[in-house]
Every structure is written in C-alpha cells, then in structure tokens.
C-alpha cells in the first residue's frame, strides 16, 4: 500500500502538465537567441507567461519566472528592501522558512526586523498590522502569507494590503500554499508582489514565479543576462514554465468543485482522527472559507509528531509533522509557537494534506491505520 497525504509539501504532477513538459522538452534553443530555434523557445516561454498570467489574474509582463517558490520569496523581500533603500522588514509570526531566513539575512545587511504577532489560528489581523506599521515609520516592506502552509489558515489579504498601502508600504504576498487551492488573484489582492510555486499546483518542481506589478519596488538579486525585465537573470526553462502554466490553468479552472471534493475528504479524515486519537486537537482556523480545503493539522496530547509520522510511514502512508528533525534533534514548529501553543503541546503535531490525486481510498487507509497509533505513541 502506498498513500500520499503530504500534498502541502508538493503535489502529484498533473497528466496534462507532464504531457506539456514532455512535448516542450523537444524544443531546442535559448529563448534569448535571435535565430529561429531561439525564437521558437521564446514563443513557448511567452505562451507560458500569458497562460499563467490569465490563471493568476495579472498581466503577462508582471510574471517573472524563477527556479521555484523559495527564489520568488527571496527576490521579492530582498529586492523590495534594497529598492526602497533599506529600513524595517515586517514579518508576521509563523511565516515560512524562506521568508524568515531571507529577513534574517537582510538583518545582517542592516535591516531592522519587526515580528508582527498572529492570533491563535496563525492569522494576521489587519488592525494588528496597522499598529505595527504605526510603530515602524521606517518600514520598507511587509510580507504576509495568503494561507499558512502548516496549519492552513487563510488571511484577509486585501484587508492587510489596504492597511499597508495606507501607511505607504509595499506588500509581498506569499501565495504558494493558497494559489490553486482557494481563489487567489494578483489583481484582486492589491499586492505589489506575489510568489507562486509550480509544484504546489501539480506542475513540475524547479519552476515558480514572482508576480511583480509594474510600479513595484524591486531590485535584482541575480546578475547576468538581464532576463525577466532585468529582474531575474538566468536562462529560463520554457518547458518547465509551460508545464507550470498548464497545471495552474487546470487547478484554477476546477477550483470550486475540487475544493469541495478535497474538503469533504479532509472532514471525513478529521472526524475519524478526532475519534481514534485521544487528545487530538485541530489547529488553525475552523474548516470553511478561512482554512485551506485540503489541510488537516492536529496536535495529539501525549504523543510525538515524529513518532506518528514514522508509524504511518511504516503503514505505507506519507504525511508530515509540525516539527522538523535536524540531525536527530526535534525542533518545535515556529508556527505553533507563534500561535501561543506551549512546547509540550507543539511536539505532538501532525499535518495531513489532501490534493487533486487524493481519494476516498486514501481516507479509508488512514482511518484503518489510526486505531493502532494511540497506544504506540505515548511519551
């Protein structure tokens, strides 16, 4: 048995994206070359840009292809900070490591880091952001998650952007977990910058995008050929970009029906998990519009998340945990700590996430494995 329930880490490649990738890989040429082979590659790249722009709600010129979501986040935060001439970087608690470590790196360059508190569901309240901005007149950029990749809580992005813009501060939105899962459009968000990742929507790994408004403050962090409006040097892969665009189109086109289907799988699994694992508590926003449809994140009292993960893996079921294991030492999830959980509770975290390839059979397998876990994981 092999059951994959870690779609938040990277979902299954969509057949349409795989086909587009296989066909495009036969195209020879550098998109920057002027000969016919180069221009054929350029045509594929620009087709990908146009199709992704339509799916993401922006203009094609606003799409900057990157090597993935991490690079997009780095370019957005570092590029905006440098373009603004330095100052404070406002980072909510519980952000992804790509954001946190980028901000920390800027701190070593002289940036002042301001951590903005989130609520008990990991959501950032606009009024709290307004207070933080009022106390940071040197703010250069605000970065926020559209949806928390760990506990699945969805933020009020337009509300947060409006607050930041009222203070004259540009906003980067990390929409990597949200795009393709809940309605997410660059134009509707009002954001200046937005990061996306192919592997989260059923495209191939190794490609992502930063959506950058025409007036967004942004300085390049890579230097060389001046590709992507001079903001991201390096030869882009037309094949990867096209496969990303195809996956994004499919995800967005079927979003309403697929979200309802995946949420039903999640809710059935949640009910079984709460029934079979004593001490299990759902973390993040309640199921509904404020939570990603495929996200199920719990802490289990008296258990260790790593033990739960390994026992499920032994049963052929792949999930993840709210903590990361580095060199055999368990590190408590910063997201759960930012939510106010004590370390003891945060140790028992388990994240189960569903995607477009998930089925009722996957839930059946999970629920069949759960009863044996409770007596085996007590600390």
From TrEMBL:
SUPFAM superfamilies from the entry? PLP-dependent transferases
Q: Which cofactor(s) are needed, names only?
A: pyridoxal 5'-phosphate
Q: Which reaction does it catalyse?
A: (sulfur carrier)-H + L-cysteine = (sulfur carrier)-SH + L-alanine
Enumerate the InterPro entries for this protein: Aminotrans_V_dom (IPR000192), Cysteine_dSase (IPR016454), PyrdxlP-dep_Trfase (IPR015424), PyrdxlP-dep_Trfase_major (IPR015421), PyrdxlP-dep_Trfase_small (IPR015422)
One family from Pfam that matches here is: Aminotran_5
Q: Which keywords fit this entry according to its UniProt record? A: Iron, Iron-sulfur, Metal-binding, Pyridoxal phosphate, Transferase
Superkingdom of the organism of origin: Bacteria
Q: Where is the Aminotransferase class V domain?
A: 3-366
A GO MF annotation of the entry reads: metal ion binding
What family classification does the UniProt entry report for this protein?
Belongs to the class-V pyridoxal-phosphate-dependent aminotransferase family. NifS/IscS subfamily.
- Extract the PANTHER family matched here: CYSTEINE DESULFURASE, CYSTEINE DESULFURYLASE FAMILY MEMBER
- Name used for this protein in its record: Cysteine desulfurase
């Amino acid at each position: 048995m092999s059951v994959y329930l870690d779609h938040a880490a990277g979902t299954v490649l969509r057949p349409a994206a795989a086909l587009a990738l296989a066909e495009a890989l036969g195209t020879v040429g550098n998109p920057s070359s002027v000969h016919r082979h180069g221009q054929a590659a350029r045509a594929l790249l620009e087709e990908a840009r146009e199709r992704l722009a339509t799916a993401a709600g922006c203009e094609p010129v606003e799409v900057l292809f990157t090597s993935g979501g991490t690079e997009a986040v780095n370019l957005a935060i570092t590029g905006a900070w440098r373009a603004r001439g330095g100052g404070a970087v406002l980072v909510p608690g519980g952000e992804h490591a790509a954001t946190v470590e980028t901000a920390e790196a800027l701190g070593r360059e002289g940036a002042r880091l301001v951590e903005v508190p989130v609520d008990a569901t990991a959501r950032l309240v606009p009024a709290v952001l307004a207070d933080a901005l009022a106390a940071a007149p040197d703010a250069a950029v605000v970065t926020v998650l559209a949806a928390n990749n760990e506990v699945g809580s969805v933020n009020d992005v337009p509300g947060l952007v409006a607050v930041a813009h009222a203070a004259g501060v540009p906003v980067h939105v990390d929409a990597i977990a949200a795009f393709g899962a809940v309605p997410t459009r660059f134009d509707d968000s009002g954001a200046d910058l937005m990061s996306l990742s192919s592997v989260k929507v059923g495209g191939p790994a190794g490609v992502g995008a930063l959506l950058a408004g025409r007036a967004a403050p942004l300085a390049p962090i890579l230097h060389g050929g001046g590709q992507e409006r001079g903001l991201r040097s390096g030869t882009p892969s037309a094949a990867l970009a096209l496969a990303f665009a195809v996956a994004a189109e499919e995800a967005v086109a079927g979003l309403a029906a697929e979200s309802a289907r995946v949420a039903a799988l999640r809710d059935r699994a949640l009910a079984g998990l709460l029934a079979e694992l004593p001490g299990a508590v759902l973390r993040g926003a309640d199921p509904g519009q404020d939570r990603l449809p495929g996200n199920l994140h719990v802490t289990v009292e008296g258990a260790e998340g790593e033990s739960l993960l390994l026992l499920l893996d032994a049963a052929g079921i792949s999930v993840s945990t709210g903590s990361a294991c580095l060199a055999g030492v368990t590190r408590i999830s910063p997201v759960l700590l930012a939510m106010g959980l004590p370390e003891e509770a945060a140790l028992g975290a388990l994240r189960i996430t569903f995607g477009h390839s998930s089925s009722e059979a996957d839930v059946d397998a999970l629920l069949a494995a759960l009863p044996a876990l409770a007596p085996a994981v007590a600390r």
